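Feature request, filed as a ticket because there's no other form

It would be nice if the structure record came with a short human-readable summary line next to the tokens. Right now we just get the raw output. Example of a typical job, pasted below so the devs can see what we mean:
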Amino acid sequence: MAFQANQHRCNRSTGLSRNRSNNLRTVSLAAMIVVTAQASARFEEAVAGGFAIREQSAMSQGTSFAGSAAGDSLSSMFWNAAAASAVSGPGINVDSNYSVISPFAEVTVDTIGGNSATPGFFGAESGDIAPPAIVGATYASYQLSDKMFVGISLNSPFGLTTKPQNLNYAGNVLGRTSKLLTLNASPTISYELFPGFFVGAGAQVQYADGKFSFASDLGPTQSTTFEGDDFAFGGTAGILWKPSPATSIGLGYRSQLSHTLDGDFTTPGATQSGEADVDLPDIVTLSMRQSLAPNMRVMGTVEWSNWSRFEELAVTGVVSPDPIVIEANWDDGWFFSLGAEYDMPDGITWRAGVAYEISPVDAPEKRILGIPDSDRIWLSAGASFQLMPSTTVDLAYTHIFLENSEFSRSPIGSTTEFAGSIEAHTDIISLGLKTRW
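Raw output as currently delivered:
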């Protein structure tokens, strides 16, 4: 299998004298980073608990992210800042990933004010509210010494875009359009403290741009909308322990981030300055990889996300300081996955995995129609193809079964309860390219 940690360890003592100023390498790396940022900015769709984006690695997706923090790929840097030391070799290492996400989610309003919904001409069903998405992620590392590496990752850790095909369906007073884009740069440094034990730490610089709208009480075709953006700062840390060549255990942490989106709050006939607070969770990931034979490995992951920080979305205008509050009161999220890999003699590695994710949305009253989250099961398969000693291609496919869920919420400024159901599922295809110069 390409880019195995033991292969890199064997090569670590050579190649330090490579030309470090090669212009072609620099231009190629910059191009990959720009393309990834453009792909991330173009579309986003949350396909993990809450509105997190888990699709940060084609290789890890093939095992439903089992072993994601255990350091078998440079993309492990997203979950564990220590990974660069464990898997990188001399020179510049790059791992670039792209995911095409095809989700489906449909909202049906069953009752309004406790009575059967009679929405009239506009209908009770939203149609598909989840458009297709493309998400990119790129990682790069460089060896400073025999034991120290620096790296950077560019990701979109959180995001969503939901917009009903039927903009004027009965539930549009609860949510018409929701959009959140994040672009995150995480420079890291990692070090081998002693043989087989690695530590890492880094910073997070994250840009967020959000838009939220719902039908105005002045008429079903008019909207109240907030749009704004912000920068936030946080950190990452991790440890990676390899007690033997057959075992790898990784523990990674990504800190909470808090955005205050500054922008415009628009109601029919008026626009004023406004702001919205968005509290994002800490994430802790524990992973393990275990070789059963020279060509076969099993792995697992447990991940906790502190989504209980997301208590509400409050939009406050400068002229009208009374906030519009959308209650959330979410619980924490949990993710459990198991996977396996098998190396073929022809240089192809096959992998598969399954995962169960516990949503932070555990009651109909907490389910926001723009974020139709529920418990889910992941089924994944993937493969790696070594094209040459320094180049590997990763492919992965995932189908996500989301549990049919219910909602029970009232429009802003009203006590009338809207209740109904949400049906959803998602398909994902990912492509990754690992290169070393």
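Something like this underneath would help us a lot:
The two ends are 18 Å apart (CA to CA).
Residues 1-44 have pLDDT under 50 and may be disordered.
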